[in-house]
Amino acid sequence: MATAILDKPGKIKKIDKSNMLSFCVEAPKHCQEAAKLAQAVLIDYPRPQTIIVAGMGGSAIGGELLKDWAKDRITVPIEVCRAYSLPAYADKRTLVFVVSYSGETEEALSMFLDAIKRNCMIFCISSGGELLEFAEKLKFSYLRVPSGILQPRAALPYLFLPMLVLLEKLGLVSDTSSEISKAVKTLERVKSENLPESPLSDNFSKNLASRINGTVPVVYGFGIYRAVAQRYKQEFNENSKILAKWEFFPELNHNEIVGWEAAKELAKCFSTIFIRDKDEPEEMQQRIEATEELIREGSKKIFEVWSVGESRLAKMLSVIYIGDLTSLYLAILRGVDPTPVKTIVLLKERMKQSGVKEKITRKLQKLCRKMTPNSQSFSL
C-alpha cells in the first residue's frame, strides 16, 4: 500500500529533504521559546484604540488567530491587513503590528511605510531583513525572532504568540503566560500521538492524510476555529501542493452548502473536514451535524478533527498542530518535498522586475535621512 511509506522514516527523509516534518514536530518547544522572547521585549505605547496586523501569507495568519482568540476578551477592534496600504482609520491611536518573517515582503514594507506616515504606534516582528533594518534606524519597537526557519508558515509560533504577550504588556489581556504554558502541555500530548514514529494505525494525522489523499479538502471551522480552518487551507496549499478551500459557520449555511448539490461526479472530488469542540455551543453543534447529514450524499469523505485541551489557546493550537502534520504527511504520500514553494518564488522574481519594492525602500531610506537626531520625528 502507498500509505506504508508513512511508517518508513528513511523514505520520508528522502522526500522531505529539508526536514520540515521534524521541525514542525517541535512546535511545543517553539511556542515556549516564542513566549520567552516576547516577555523580554519592552513596548512603551499608550492603550491603542484600534489594532492592525499588517502582513501576508504565513506571516499574516497569526493576526487572524489573534483576532479570533481576543474577540470577546478586549474591546479594541483587531483587523488583519493584507495589502500595500492601511485602512483609512489608521492614525496615531492605532497600534500596527508589522509582521514579516523574512523582513523582505514588499507589501509589509509598504504598510510599514504607510504606518509611519500616519504616525501610528508601530511594532515589528521579523527575523531580520529590511523591515528590522529600518525599524532600528527609525527607532521603532521590534521583536527579532530566530532566523533560518524553513518557511514563514513554519514560524507560526514566533509570529503569533508574541502578540498575545504584547497585548498583556499593554494591559489589554491578562495571564497569557499561564495560558501559553497550558497550551504547550496540550501540544506535547498531541505530539506524542502524531509523531512520525507513531504507526499509521495509531496516528490520527497520518490516517487523515491517507484518507483525504486524491481529493480537494474543504475545511469548515467556527468561532475560534475560523482562522484555524484558514490555516489548514494554507498548509494544504503550501506543504501538500494541492488545491483546498475553507469556510466557517454559520455563514457557510447561507451559501456554501448549496454547492454540494453539484453533480455527484464533481462532488466526489472533494473531502470535507469539520473542526469540532466538545464545548461547542448547542446551536453550533446542531448546525454542524445538520450540515454533515445534508452534504453526505455529495461528499463521500467526511471527517472530524476534535480540539484537545481546556483553554482557548490550547484548543486552537492543538487543531492547528494536527492540521500542519496532516498536510506534511499528505505531501509525503504524494511524493513531494513540502518545503519549496516554487510558484511563489517565481512570482516574487517577476515582481522584483516591476521595481515596486525598490521604490518603497528608497522612500524608507529618505525617511531615515530626514529623521531628527535622537527622536522619532520626520519631515514627511
Describe the structure.
With 380 residues, the chain is α/β, with parallel strands linked by helices. 48% of the residues lie in helices and 13% in strands. The chain is built from 15 helices and 9 strands. The protein has helices at 9-15, 20-25, 27-39, 61-70, 106-117, 129-137, 156-169, 176-194, 204-212, 226-238, 264-267, 282-295, 312-334, 342-354, 356-370, and strands at 50-54, 78-81, 94-99, 121-126, 141-144, 216-222, 245-249, 270-276, 301-306. The strands form 2 sheets. The chain has a 5-stranded parallel sheet, sandwiched between helices. Strands 7-6-8-9 form a 4-stranded parallel sheet. Helix 10 links the parallel strand 6 (216-222) and strand 7 (245-249). Helix 3 (27-39) packs antiparallel against helix 8, helix 4 (61-70) packs antiparallel against helix 10 (226-238) and helix 5 (106-117) packs parallel to helix 15 (356-370). The N and C termini lie far apart (65 Å). The mean pLDDT is 94.
Features:
380 residues; 9 strands; alpha/beta; single chain; 4-stranded parallel sheet; 13% strand; globular
